[in-house]
Amino acid sequence: MTDMTAATVTTAELRLGRKVEPIAVVELADADKPAVIREYLRRWKAEVGQFFDGINERSTDDELLAVAAGFPVFRILPAP
Q1: How many structural domains are present in the chain?
Q2: Rounded CA gap, 77 and 80, in Å?
């Protein structure tokens, strides 16, 4: 996993109805994305698979790394 101390942290809010939760988000480095992308495709392939042309939940880490820059992946953290 990438050292988060060097990453840019952005604050935001999650909203559901009237409930608002402050959060911080950090974009993962490309090297950290394959496992997250793979799990995302495993869970949501029917809904999002068309946007991941040529890769799926069985793709190798190298295949996922080759396309990782085109897919933003964020770690959601409690607000500081």
Answers
A1: 1
A2: 8
Amino acid type, 49: G
Residue with tokens 């949501």: 44
3-class DSSP assignment, residue 47: helix
CA angle 71, 28, 20 (to 5 degrees): 90
d(CA 26, CA 10): 7
pLDDT digit string (tens) for the chain, length 80 residues: 444 445 688 999 999 999 999 999 999 999 999 999 999 999 999 899 888 888 999 999 999 999 999 999 999 999 88
Q: Does the global pTM surpass 0.90?
A: no
Residue type, 37: I
